[in-house]
Amino acid sequence: MALSRVCWARAALWGSAVTPGPHVTRKLQLVRCGLAWGAPRYLFPRQLLIQHFWTPKQQIDFLDIYHALRKQSHPEILCYLEKVIPLVSDAGLRGHMTELCTKIQHGTHPAIHDILALRECFSNHPLGMKQLHALQMKALSRAMLLTPYLPSFLLRHRLRTHTTVIHQLDKALAKLGIGQLSPQEVKSACYLRGLNSTHIAEERCRTWLGEWLQISCSLKEAELSLLLHNVVLLSVNYTGTRR
Hints:
By secondary structure, the chain is an all-alpha fold. It contains twelve helices and no strands. It has helices at 2-13, 24-36, 45-48, 56-71, 74-83, 91-105, 112-116, 134-143, 152-176, 183-192, 202-216, 224-233. It starts with a helix and ends in a 10-residue tail after the last helix. Mean pLDDT is 82; it is low at 1-41 and 43-48.
């Protein structure tokens, strides 16, 4: 269960959309005041209660809401990848990128080798972490449930920091072994990495997490922009994911 707590702690670190902000106590005081004045019901458990106090149904409903928010950025991220294809200097990589984008647009879940074949594109121009356009960083921030309303240099720093944390967690998880995780820990780990695991069977979640770890543990620090984009690439068409 320790790993689960780490995963959800990191999820909280990735933005207030996953857990309430720092003013929970004040808000609860306001709610109590409202109730004292005859407010008809308790309206905002998602914003005012930490996840520990969510009911099982609330947990599913709220995680669906959060995933719907981050999913809104997926088309923008994929469209950007298509637009930069002409900027890839290597003809072979341009072909791989075109093939990957076409597969995803047609609803195909990409294979591990399809994604890793593009690692060079994501280590320097045009998709390296230092070369990402501001609009793409804003879309990626939304996909990670982070606020996009920051200057470009802060968006880049925060995306690099959070992706590095995930990469380190992935290495530790690979050493531990997915088989050591409980069903809830597996689903939590998948959700943190972009998959809406609330409606996917446990074994399917374990399979997906295994694919993610294979990709992540194959990447060097300079290639972490690919891991960042993998939040969308690997999750968007996975079997069982709600549209």
